[in-house]
Amino acid sequence: MYRVMLIDDEPIILEKLQNVIDWEKENCRIVAVAGNGAEAMKLCRDLKPQIIFSDIYMPLMDGLELAEEIKNLLPESLVILISGYNEFAYAQKAIEAGVFRYLLKPIRAGELSKILAEAKNCLTERRQAAEEKIRLQNLIKKNLPGLREKFFVKLINGQLGPEDLKEQLAFLEIKLQGEWWGIILFHLDNYPQLALKKKEAELQFYQFHLLELIKKRYTTPSFLYPFIHRPAEIVLLYGLTDPGEEKKLYETTLFVQDEILKTDGVSFSAGFGGLYPELVSLERSYQEALLALEFKVWTGANALIPYKDIESSKSGRLLHHREQETFSSLLREGNREKILGFIQQIFATLKTENYLHMPKSYLLLTVLDLVNQIIRSLLEFNGSLEEIYGPAFDPVREINSFETLDQLQTWLEKMACQALAFINDHKQKVGRNFVEKAREYIEENFRDPDLNLEKVADQVYISSCYLSRLFKEVTAYSFTEYLNRRRVSEAEKLLLTTGAKIYEVAEAVGFRDSHYFGIVFKKITGLAPSEYRDQIRSNPFA
What's residue 314's pLDDT? Predict the structure, then answer.
């Protein structure tokens, strides 16, 4: 029950307030009455009333002063002031004091009950809002590890500025230690070949084993945060108090490389980005680590490659990593025209003056990286390189065999188009499979009036938006049209074979509203349900 306090310096008014309505029926209990504001404040501290009715004009402490005090003592409680005067000045001060409502004398039961109901609704909404806030806070706390990882992914991808860092670090409860910040990237070697030979469980084991070794062995950094960023790639974000400690990280990396090769029989290469004094520069360190790993084509597998060792040897530059990411996205999208346009743009860029003095090794590395994106995209769709490109497929050998950019471009376009043909065919097969499963579920459950797109999508484990699009592509009907047609088809049988009333037939096939059923039935069959029954019975061969 809601706790109520009544305050007035006139006993007659107090008595009337206590008896003018049945407080218990209103789910309220009067916990205290007081004759002035000072007395009321003492009682408030002990009894903590939720709804307070107080006269404005009282000795020692008037209603406005009392409202100010209660706002500080019991901020969730509601104060309703009672006055015999409808004065704008008092009403304005009451609003400033946080008063909930302004009740005029003489007090009438109906008006009092109305204001009381509003107060109870307000308290209920506040309680629900407070409970929801606590629930969300607990949910956030539960999901902090995942939120932290998303934060660091945004950081290394350059999606956070210096002004964002302080607030998000505090929110995610991340305590940074270090003066110099850097990135180490760990890539499992020969991952495309591993993905063809090994089961997914084994690939996941390799990654998580390497992740645990990184957490266990890298004791030098004052701050350490490793996470799996994508298949075959682990990012280690670290902070050092002294840049000279980087040498110890090299030693630890070599030790971990030996350890995982002995225990799991797989190798990984590590690319070291540069060290920087600003945390926001981790994007640059990450890009440098990626570039360092691209030199694995020369160093071979199980390599440790610091970016600073290759930086001075560069004459020209590789394509930016974000351009490679765009290529991967276009491959997944499956649009042939966009893919060919992207490749043409890449080679047009390579033919510009800025790239004329790029060593052939850099050029081939750029093309090889695009090939790698194609291979990864195919593996994501369970493609077999041997079936698509033949058993003798060797992209490194083929790339090195070309002598001109035009030859390279033609070969890459052909390879991309072959990949697109497989990806699009795979997506169509998967789409048809999802729709077939959805149709089976609809067949079993179309009589359920609560059946909808979201429920069916949950059953086939895809998003409702994706299922809606697939349904239209495969059946030529929207989900709603298909469901309505199935229900009407069943209704036709019932109208023909039973004497059920129209509303009974509607309910039997999943319609709650017989009027809406009639509209849908006529739209599909051209006849109202009663007309359909009469026509079929009078002329069964029609």
Answer: 47
